[in-house]
Amino acid sequence: MNGTVLAGLKDPSALHAAARSRAFQVFAEALAYPESELEDAIRSGMVRESLLEALAELDPKLAESADSEALCTAMGEDDLAVEYTRLFDVGASGPPCPLYGGLYGGARMKVMEEAVRFYNHFGLQLGDEPRELPDHLLVELEFLHFLAFREADTLEGGEDPGPWRRAQRDFITRHTGAWVPKLRVKLADCDPPPYIAEVVRLLGLTLEAEAGVLVRETLHT
Q1: How confident is the model at residue 1 (pLDDT cuts 50, 70, 90)?
Q2: At how many degrees (to 10) do helices 194-217 and 162-171 cross?
Q3: Residue 66, phi-psi category: left (phi > 0), alpha (psi -120 to 50), beta (remainder)
Q4: Is 92 helix (H, G, I), strand (E, B) or coil?
Q5: 12-217 has which fold?
């Protein structure tokens, strides 16, 4: 859970973009399928430390709002993995809380095609793993991590960050930020483990806050 290194950046806007990049990366790691290594990191407090540190760099209020105890509650051995599967991966008519944005209203193929256009525009290609469908939450978070990283790099180099900012603004408002609130609603009806509920809650707050920042930054560009 090492995240993006912020050391060496001087421009305040670059620092914020780098903090945003790191936060999305940590969220992606924290919401991956909980193999034993991730479960151990949750129990030890490593995940909590990484997430709270990333959020504090982005917006201290986000870190202060976190339920610290929930962020290190991994339950018994393999229990979190069982719950992850119950919520996100299986169900008679599909999982109750899918991690695919295209399943939260609208035509899924259209949603996926638009996401692919975003990725391809920036020279990115999806792999062949099942979880690498274009509308999967982890894929979307990795994309936002990449865009924010490139924004920070561009700012530090004295170049125009506009394309990277606008891409983040548009992708959050049309994709991740549009459907994660719906995921939170579904989770609330499914008795999720405290860890999963809290990470998704914090992700929703982060997406909302950063969408606002990006809208303001791109208002006149």
Answers
A1: very low
A2: 130
A3: beta
A4: strand
A5: TorD-like (1.10.3480)
